[in-house]
């Protein structure tokens, strides 16, 4: 029996029938209309998924949210639902962590996700409130570095590098500090940023790559690839899957235009804003 067809017909004829089934129906049931809508899956992307060693443990989802998003929790709820539907056999239960720079960035309207948040499965982290830790792990210090004002970031980065220089196998962490600072000081080249925070040439990946391959120009290419990937990810999360031709236009933008787009997209309200920007800048 095609019960969905039968119910479609019933609800199409009498939409208020649904409210005869539930307690506490709304007062304006007669004003409701019915439609059968195909909801195509949006191109969701979860920032981090931490799988347990075996399927008896919890999977942890992580979202890093540094820009206001009035529907962050609705999107996270959808992402988790889709993921658990597809990969349920890989874990027993789930938890989620959302990392904010501070409380002001967190979503304020929570009516539709109040039960989702009240479940206790979601842990919001506010980085500015971690700064009071006496001796935070280096990973937390790197997170805090992303939130600091420019002058404080320079001082902190230099202090971290001075400490790390005393430790073996610290080049990867120093490289991460350099990358954080490059994103903070977009008007400077990576070489200028590394000189500003006291990174010596031999400590950088740029030096290692150039020494191995003889391609110092790879620095700019790497920054361009990183910028393009980040921008496409932000646009996809805001507007859904982009048309291939839009991706092609963005892929051809030089580094300076990608950096301009990275700033401009913060003010985009709809896809048309992006199309107008690309028409004027490509």
Structure description:
This protein is of the alpha/beta class and 282 residues long. It has four domains: 1-37, no CATH class; 48-129, no CATH class; 138-216, no CATH class; 220-265, no CATH class. 48% of the residues lie in helices and 8% in strands. The chain is built from twelve helices and four strands; from the N terminus they run H-E-E-H-E-H-E-H-H-H-H-H-H-H-H-H. The protein has helices spanning 3-13, 72-87, 114-118, 138-145, 150-164, 171-184, 190-196, 205-213, 218-239, 244-251, 255-264, 271-281, and strands at 48-50, 58-64, 93-100, 122-126. The chain has a four-stranded mixed sheet with strand order 1-2-3-4. Strand 1 (48-50) and strand 2 form a beta hairpin. Helix 5 packs antiparallel against helix 6 and helix 9 (218-239) runs parallel beside helix 11. The longest helix has 22 residues, at 218-239. It is globular. The relative contact order is 0.06. The model has no long low-confidence stretch (mean pLDDT 81).
